[in-house]
Amino acid sequence: MNTPVMYALCRDCLHLQAGAAIACSSCGRGRILSHPALTRLSIAHMDCDAFFAAVEKRDDPSLRDKPVIVGGGQRGVVSTCCYIARLYGVRSAMPMFTALKLCPDAVVIGSNFAKYREAAAMIREKMDALTPLVQPVSIDEAYMDLSGTETVHHAPPAVSLARLARDIERDIGITVSIGLSSNKFLAKTASELDKPRGFAVIAPEEAEALLGPKPIDFLHGVGPKFAEKLARDGFDTVKDIQDTELKALIGRYGETGMWLKQRAHGLDTRPVRNDEERKSVSSETTFRTDISDPGALEDQLWQLCVKTADRAKAAGVVGVVVTLKLKTSNFRALTRRVSLGEPTQLAQEIFRAGRPLLAREANGRERFRLIGIGLTGLDDHRADTVDLLDPSIAKRAAAERASDAARAKFGKDAVVTGRAARIAKARENES
Fold first, then answer.
1. Residue 167: inside a domain
2. pLDDT, tens digit (0-9, with 9 covering 90-100), for 373-383
3. Closest to 380 measured CA to CA, from 302, 306, 281, 301
4. pTM of the model
5. Range of 3's domain?
């Protein structure tokens, strides 16, 4: 078995060399990143280090060696804090009075979002110059897909990212931490391994071994409450998930079980999306003849819910708002919305939300020429906590995923619901 070639990257002068190194053979400095997969990975996550506090320290050098908390007054909460304050136990979202008990010498500064947005815009400009595939997560973090950029920048993505971090520190005055891997989940995980001012790499082939010993809440997306439930069920480490059959996880947690299994093995198929302009996923249809019958309108709605769900699944997104669109025979447009308790991409859940909206408008007298259904408030698809709270949703989710798999393998007509069969029969009668 061939031993993979080790590569070493100097994060100061950007010299890349084959072989492990303690110091750079070009500049002699020691900020070296070594990894055999350094030249073949292209998905990155970048997170600004204590962003708000870093901007404040940049603008007031006297704060450099002091604990800084950004947030409200005594009755407010911590927006963020510098790494010095974190040594005292201060954390984001902590009540301010608690933070000041832990760190009484902290310098408290009110938030200045105009200043933070200006710095964020400057950072975004530099990311956009690196790759067109930038997906912001918040004001101070983003995913990047650098696939194919080597020919443009004449350097592997790792070198381009190290240059980006160096340029941000030099030009904007703050530091960032970068994770580089083969997918978004592992890139995010890597960026948390070496903070602040860090750069970490996780190759897909080492993901299982790295993740296995970690506590279950190490998985990005597993919050405290979910972690508690998993612990009660006997899952303390990621390896406990790795060693459990997928069927058992789905049986217990619904589609969240599928998500857990994938993440425990370091798998993530979500693309890096540069679609900030994309606000919704939707489908609509204009009828050949106007429809007034509520049952017929429901049938049309169901078909559109399936199409919308398919598009959401293909894009790897969920939505938290369902929007119904109607147009009457005299071209009067109607729009009705409802917010969901939890985001979804499931056809059944979209239909369950849209059906009452339709019922309030479809009285059997009004004729409609168009109907549409859409999801807004989009986010990346990940564990759906509602599955844990409502077993019926978990069952519906599992059934729909099974139906999706059958349709993908055997064709769109492989699974036919009672409603779909009735629609098909009606079409036969019309023709």
1. no
2. 999 887 766 54
3. 281
4. 0.69
5. 1-36
